[in-house]
Amino acid sequence: MTQSSNESDKEPGHASAPGPETQTFPLGGAFVQPPSPPAPVQSGMPGAPAAPPAAPVEGFKLPVGLNPAGWWTGAVAGVGAYVAVLLLSLVTTLLFVVGLAASGSGDSVSVPSNPIVSDGDLPSPWSVLFQFAAQLPALGLMGSLGGKIDADMGMFGQLSATFGAFVMPLLITAAAVAALFIGGRVAEKRLPSGTPLDRLMQSVAAGAAFSLVLNLVATIASIRIPAGSELVFSLNAANAASIVVAFMVGVAASFLGRSRAAAAGQANPRKRFAMSLVRDAGLTVTAHAAVFLVVSIPVIVIVLGIKSGWLATLSAPLWAPTVGLFLLGLGHFAAFGTVTAAGSGGGTGIGSSNFGYGMGSALSDFGIPAWTGWLLVLLALLAVAVAAIYWYLRRGAQNPASILGWTALPAAFLAAGALLLWVSGIHASFTMAQGSGLISIGLAWWTPFLMLLWGVVTEVAARYLAPKVAPLLPAALVARIQRKPSVLEFPRAKVPAAGHGAVPGTAATPDGLAGQAFPAGPPPAPGTPVTVEHTPLSKKAKRNLILAGGAVGLVVVLVGGGAIAANVVRANNGPDKVVQEYLAALVDGNAEHAMAIADPSISNASRVLMTNEIYGKAKNRPDGFSVLKTSVEEDAATVSVELRQNGVKSQTTYQLVKTNPTLLNNNWTLQGTGGGKNLGTGSVAVQLGSKLSTILVNGVEVSLAGLDQQGGSMYQLPALPGTYSLGLPETSKYLSAEPATAVVSIQGDGMGQLAELKPTPNAAFDTAVQEQVSALLKACAEQKTLKPEACPFSAYEYSDTRDVSWKITKEPTFDVYSSQENTWSLSTNAAGEAAASYERDTSFGSSAPEWKKDTYDARIYLQGVITVDKDKLAVKFTD
């Protein structure tokens, strides 16, 4: 195997010069050269030692190598790192708010239903853009967005509660680590620290400044939210965790950056070996995760962008890294789900958990087909292959047969699994005197142990698969991977130090390596990478390989791209989209389109209120909605939605089934049962005080003919959520009624509050009845008989009469009552009087007629039935 030195790894300003004696010793079959003492460096040059510390105060002596006068550079690096992170937070927040505006929600944000804060209390996202951005760095460093509320609830007593939500914006977290690392490296190059201890103190200053500014700004920029007319509470993400974690991350990242910029060769050999091993294992796990995430994150952003619009696309920097880690876990057979817990002040509590796998409910609950989970597994296997090759090429001269050789990479995967579980979790909690609650969303607790197994698989692949695949890689790629080879592991046997009975044939070891077993020669150097033999291919073989690779790639692109495209198109026509279209029609008042989407299981004859003309004029229709969850199981789907109507929120579930599915469209159909209750429909219940053939609903005349009645004159008319105004038709000349209001709530709980529409006779009714009574009496008075036909008065005479005439001397008064037959009854209140004058025959037939004038006074009693049909009133008099 050819051995090569790696002088290119030495950084400027850190060159080594040969010492007075140079020896070479064989180590592991290779000849390596000991490190030489550093060359003198002029003051002020990069890599030069820091100026000596100021004279100590009398009575106090600083540890050797500390220079407090230069610690300000650490603080400046920490503040500069925070400024960079804050600028990134402002950009991501601006994209999020622009996405809200593009989705039509630019001036409002909805919160889950609660008794404290309503949607109307929330500030506009534009007004709190900076405040929200200021919370992101604290959230990225383990902060929790929450606050405390103290309120007097009147008869319910004093309410005191704390609440918080934990979710790490991982892009901000990564930016913070990178900014601190780069800031430490730049600061170290500009003003080098004299010793490792001074370097640590510089890093402590950076971490302290970073944590102080981050949490101070987050606290000052608290988001103020009113709860009612008098109560206001503040939300911020600064807490003890964000203070400690920001400080620790600041110290660690800054120290690593400074150590990277510090002079090489200062670490002892075993430390260099350990750092090399940790670096290579960490880079291998990083390569594994990068291959998975660089494919999965863009795909999920594109898919959700198509499904949910600009809001999902522009807010991707906030959610995409976390979702990518969830997919990473699912692709490695980890479970994803929720854990809830609640407890009362008395100490009793309940809890539950619900987990699913990528091939099961974990993805299907969000409307993503379960077979997508197997694609994630295939992507994970691809990432294993890449990581195995990378580990094989990086490991170089380390001894793979040792225990450390078998355990290093699985241990790195285990640590990565623990980090994955830690940073990807989403938690929300509240605590009050009456009890507490917690909900967590994320990967299952056993995820790190699954990652450990994947690390073992990768290690096995690196030993048996990678050596066969590595020769197929381009030489330039192999050289790039092996640019900084690993450090050789040192033998464990001890030898005496120089001058103390050294073993013959060995040389004295340099300072810091005494007691290590080395053959005569220098201390160990970086190991030699594995040699990858590249067998040149003939032109024909290259052509065939290119053609075969192109064909395979084309098939993969066509099949994979077609599958993804078909899935995206189907997802865009998924069950949640159908529900969204249905609810959007309700919001717009387009009842006919809503009924075309859904099947409410209501007869067409009963849909008299489900027209655009009526529903478009309904007030307090649903004014917004949010899809909470979508679950698909074979040919059925369930979509959970939160509806908002006139300040009230309600959660409902919609059932859908596939109807004649095709390749690109599953044709989901909303199913309604029981009068469409599960579609959010209800009914307008109206009680009529009299028989009517038509009523007005939202100003539109509705015929009641043929509709089922309940209890005589009560109608229950199916209706969509909203408020309906009821009245009498404008053609009703003789009746009046107070307008009534019927409310159909978004709960779809059947018949709402009964609305009574009581038609009552008006003045025109009284006048018309009086006119018909007078006409009847007049007609009766004109009859020349003592017994007028169909009249309320008459006279009786035993003998013949002639010249009969009637005169109404007093018209009767009457009352009108609503009868059980849904008509009005007329009856006499005070009798009227009619006088008859006539001549009667007093001869009684014994001789020639003897006519004698006579009179008769009759009382008038009226009875009758009054009916009204729009503009026609009729009185039917009865005996």
Secondary structure blueprint with pairings:
Blueprint: E1 25-27, E2 30-32, H1 72-102, H2 129-140, E3 145-152, E4 158-167, H3 170-190, H4 196-220, E5 223-227, E6 231-235, H5 240-261, H6 269-308, H7 310-314, H8 316-331, E7 336-344, E8 349-356, H9 361-364, H10 372-395, H11 403-423, E9 426-432, E10 435-443, H12 447-464, H13 466-469, H14 475-481, H15 539-572, H16 575-588, H17 591-597, E11 598-599, H18 612-615, E12 624-633, E13 636-645, E14 648-658, E15 668-671, E16 682-688, E17 694-697, E18 700-703, E19 714-719, E20 722-727, E21 735-736, E22 740-744, E23 750-751, E24 755-757, E25 760-761, H19 763-781, E26 801-810, E27 813-818, E28 824-830, E29 832-841, E30 851-860, E31 863-869, E32 872-877
Parallel strand pairs: 11-15, 16-23, 16-24
Antiparallel strand pairs: 1-2, 3-4, 4-9, 5-6, 7-8, 7-10, 9-10, 12-13, 13-14, 14-15, 16-19, 17-18, 17-20, 20-22, 21-25, 26-29, 27-28, 28-31, 29-30, 31-32
Helix pairs in contact: 1-2, 1-3, 1-4, 2-3, 2-4, 3-5, 4-5, 6-8, 6-10, 6-11, 8-10, 10-12, 11-12, 16-17
Please describe what this structure looks like.
With 879 residues, this protein is an alpha+beta fold. The strands form 9 sheets. Strands 3-4-9-10-7-8 form a 6-stranded antiparallel sheet. Strands 11-15-14-13-12 form a 5-stranded mixed sheet. Strands 16, 19, 23 and 24 form a 4-stranded mixed sheet that branches. A hairpin with a 2-residue loop joins strand 9 and strand 10. The protein is elongated. It starts with 24 loop residues before the first strand and ends with a strand.
